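Researcher: Go.
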Amino acid sequence: MTASSATAGIAGTSPDVRQHLAGLLRAALAHMAPDQGYVEIILERPKQASHGDFASNLALQLARGLKTNPRQIAERLVRELPSSPAVAKVEIAGAGFINFTLTPAARTAVVHAVLAAGQDFGRGPASRLKLQVEFVSANPTGPLHVGHGRGAAYGASLASLLAFAGYDVSREYYVNDAGRQMDILAVSAWLRYLELFDEPVPFPPNAYQGGYVREMAEQIRQAHGDRYVHPAEAVLACVPETDDAEARLDGLILAGKDLLGEDWAYVHAHVLNEQLTDCRADLEEFGVHFDVWFSERSLYETGMVARAVAALEKSGHIYLQDGAKWFSSTAFGDEKDRVVQRDNGLYTYFASDIAYHLNKFERGFDKVIDVWGADHHGYIPRVKGALSASGADAGKLDVTLVQFVSLFRDGQKASMSTRSGEYVTLRQLRGEVGNDACRFFYMLRKCDQALDFDLDLAKSQSNDNPVYYVQYAHARICSVLAQWDGDQAALAATDLVPLQHEREFALCARLAEFPELVRLAARDYGPHALAFYLKDLAGDFHSWYNAERLLVDDQATRHARLALALATRQVLQNGLSLLGVSQPVSM
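Model: Structure:
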């Protein structure tokens, strides 16, 4: 390798050795084939330790453009590589892979980097890009269930990851406080209220059935007595005779509105406030926080929905059919056109969704990320189509889909039907396995993959339980440091030369991966990668801990090993914090 002052002082101290090696290859390429400077340089960890610390396929990438055998290209690149105190050896393997073996000092330099950066190790550079992550956004018609919990855990972890990667992130919950579902909840509570006064109306099977509805009915009775009582006969007189369950339910809603008049607003507001308050408390207890709670109703009150539909109509993307206004969403890849305003003048949910997303962009976000349930996949083309038709940049909207959760208890799959009230709530799940297990287990699969949540495993205190395994690594380190009872701050300047074993180098290599992992996980909207990484990091630590004593008699070796343990604890803390999981000091 030839010398280069451009790389002096970087190697051996940089926490991102990968970037340093890429710079060496880029310098070699500039000498050998300057017209190929656009080629992306990729460095990966070889699967076999004998192949070095990093491998590059740059020669294979250049072979086609240079019309030369890749092994010959690799040889030329190696000859042109600048010298570096971080590199102990460079070898060519196979068809032309370039393998780098680092010096011991370069391998362990990450320990000092972690201890110097502390909580900021892995944090990306500040970006001016404003991102909004909207997640959960469940209708406030009942307690959150375990499916909502997965969306909450994913959205919260994603938002934390993006903020840690350097973006300006706003977390938002879209409150569906307008429309039919809230009317169904209101009439459900009112019918249960009537039962308390011996005026029972046959309860619709498609109304909300849960015990929380009876509780709200009792709250209304205690607060206002019989003020909202009407004879069951009068209620039924307003309901059409029909076998259509949905039409009958709509008839009951109209009966409630007609008989209660202005009092209907109180019943509606009470059930909304009760369920929204419960939802907020549930999420706060789960460690999920929002910067904005955006009201759907505000879109109607401020005229945003009407303006959005009018703008689409003016641009020629709305047509009339059977008295209703339709958006030509098939022109934008949707399977069929969609109604935005019914023949009775009422706007659809889709119309308010269009207005809501236009409002997001009006607020100046550079990227909007929606976290939806997998059953909403068909909604993506119509929303993006409406944005494009409105003149907005639909490319600024990214939608991630969260697949369903199957909860298993004692080998039996639990029901989660929101109308029947038989579902397992997020609060019940948290009470059974704890917040930490919930948050971590939800991240054990990519969000677009179905998840089987094993309650027995989540509650077990064994190495088979991944969250226990990771937290135990943290607790073990805390125990060792407590036994030592020395000056932890002084470890930041410890000489790391005594770190010579392969398990120590492997642990250092894993620590060094964290910044790149954060960057890639943020790019891919994949916080699950953090959970996988933390399992691997814990595994590397446990392997080292079980093979080597940390509190040895030799002071230099003891301090070097404690510094490595302390750096490992810091990265465990950083990663677990992003997932919303605690870091216990003892277990």
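Model: The chain has a mean pLDDT of 93.
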